[in-house]
Amino acid sequence: MIRDITIGQYYPAKSILHRLDPRVKLVSTLLYLISLFLFKSIAGYLAVTVFLVGIIRASKVPFRYIVKGLKPIVMLLMITVVFNLFLQKDGEVLLRIWKLSITTVGLRNAVYMAVRLIYLIIGSSLMTFTTTPNELTDGIEALLHPLNKVHVPVHEVAMMMSIALRFIPILLEETDKIMKAQQARGADFESGNMIQRAKSMIPILVPLFVSAFRRAYDLAMAMEARCYRGGEGRTKMKPLKYQTRDRAAYVTMVVYAAAVVAIGRFAPLQVWIF
Amino acid sequence: MDMVQTEKLVFEYEKRDEDGNVIGASRAIDEVDIDVKEGQFIAVLGHNGSGKSTLAKHLNAILVPTDGTVWVDGRNTKKPEELWNVRQAAGMVFQNPDNQIIGTVVEEDVGFGPENLGVPTDEIWKRVEDSLKAVGMLSYRHHSPNKLSGGQKQRVAIAGVVAMEPKCIVLDEPTAMLDPVGRKEVLKTVRKLREEKKVTVILITHYMEEVVDADKIYVMDHGKVVMEGTPREIFSEVEKLKEYRLDVPQVTILADELRKRGLDIPKGILRKEELVSEITKILQK
């Protein structure tokens, strides 16, 4: 069950998105995230939906796989929806339960916020699905390179991120193993209230941390044994070079962003579905 | 020429009490002299805690001697300016395949070593392809290491070392965490590398079956080299090996027991086929 978490994982496939320069994907993702908050009208949502569907198609990542990545944020999503739904006082009252009321504005905000969050997660996980952590590291490193001048250890930070991503599935598997081992000895993770359940996680976390530290030590040793000595003097197996398709992607993104801004500004604000 | 040589190598761990004060030292390695010639296949055998892994870490300058000297490819590992040359000359494969793979794609992991060495991009690609071919993992180059079996992961780790073009490969219990199939895969790969690339191999293990082909075996116990010689010489002394808590291969034990019961079988039988031919010889008499 715990192995089902797909968020942040690379999905190997041969698509145009997989081949794009990681810098393009990083910048595009950022642009896309900002674009999600630039409009309020239904037309804007339509535009983003069309764009997103197009990108998903182009990525060749199965839709079901992407949806699986949404699982961990269900809780967050629920909280957002509930808060938006009940704490909005403006607008016509649709339903009143005791002291709480659902208004048109509240309902609208709840739905839109949920859609925005889902789109946000899908968009950013599409980047990690189509980019290997090493490429991601290279991209971040290249984009943040100017910060080196103010003594930010850009390479080291990028390396740490890529290692963290590499170890997610390994640590998940380990968690699974530890849970089973504890369950075999009678541990109970399912019953009880929130606090009891949180407490029952301690026998999982302690061995997990111990093993994570051991792994970190082993990995550091293995890296040193393979002559790793920081970013200086390192060459790249896959150096970043912009291709025609990367330039085309940049243009697409600029057009997309401009379209969203235009729609957000000019499309009638009050075209609601309800 | 000497590939690896240690001279009265001593390594001590500091013992500390709970407040972190040094209260003494314990010797993990005690005056060890080993001598490895270029192209040789050397095995170091020993039970847990015999100091064999600590010895391995000295050959890659991960640890430096407390006393004595280690020479790798003619370089003193104690000198800081030689550190990276030593590490390139003697590549190291560790026990746990998961904890030594850095890349999320097989080929990127193999490229990690050459990248660190500052090898030009085209050359990296060539080396990655060559070394993946050498370990028979070329068809998995775009795979994620997480989806590979233990034996395959370990072969990728070996390819990662081969790509750095070391003169010598030190394998520190590379099969300890693998199933029998994985163990066979890894050993076959090591044998192939020795034949094709002529690299010096130092295999550290506690499985005696793995060292039958070695040119020379060192047996370690409590930080000391207690036996050294060819596999045949070492395997002749079954009682002594048992004393050092080593698992003597079944064939060797069987041959030894048969000889004790009066059968005319020579000492130091290493392989099943040898025993079979010895027994047939007796039967034909």
Question: How would you sum up this structure, described in words?
Answer:
The complex is a heterodimer of chains A (274) and B (285). Chain A is mainly α and 274 residues long. Chain A has two domains: 1-131 and 242-274, no CATH class; 151-239, no CATH class. Helices cover 65% and strands 3% of the residues of chain A. Chain A is built from eleven helices and two strands. Chain A has a two-stranded antiparallel sheet. Chain A is flat. The mean pLDDT of chain A is 84. By secondary structure, chain B is α/β, with parallel strands linked by helices. Chain B folds into two domains: 2-240, P-loop containing nucleotide triphosphate hydrolases (Rossmann fold), CATH 3.40.50.300; 249-285, no CATH class. Helix content of chain B is 38%, strand content 25%. In chain B, helix 3 (106-117) crosses helix 4 (121-134). Chain B is globular, with a radius of gyration of 20 Å. Chain B starts with a strand and ends with a helix. The mean pLDDT of chain B is 89. The A-B interface holds A 10, 12, 132-134, 162-163, 165-166, 169-170, 215, 218-219, 221-229, 233-239 and B 57, 60, 62, 84, 87-88, 91-92, 94, 96, 98-105, 107-108, 111-121, 124-125, 128, 142-144, 146, 160-161, 164.
List the topology elements.
The complex is a heterodimer of chains A (274) and B (285).
Chain A: H1 16-19, H2 22-35, H3 42-59, H4 63-68, H5 74-86, E1 93-97, E2 100-103, H6 104-130, H7 133-144, H8 154-184, H9 194-200, H10 202-225, H11 244-266
Antiparallel strand pairs in A: 1-2
Chain B: E1 2-16, E2 22-32, E3 35-37, E4 41-46, H1 52-59, E5 67-72, E6 75-76, H2 83-89, E7 90-93, H3 106-117, H4 121-134, H5 150-162, E8 168-172, H6 180-197, E9 200-205, E10 216-221, E11 224-229, H7 231-235, H8 238-243, H9 250-260, H10 272-284
Parallel strand pairs in B: 4-9, 4-10, 7-8, 8-9
Antiparallel strand pairs in B: 1-2, 1-3, 1-5, 5-6, 10-11
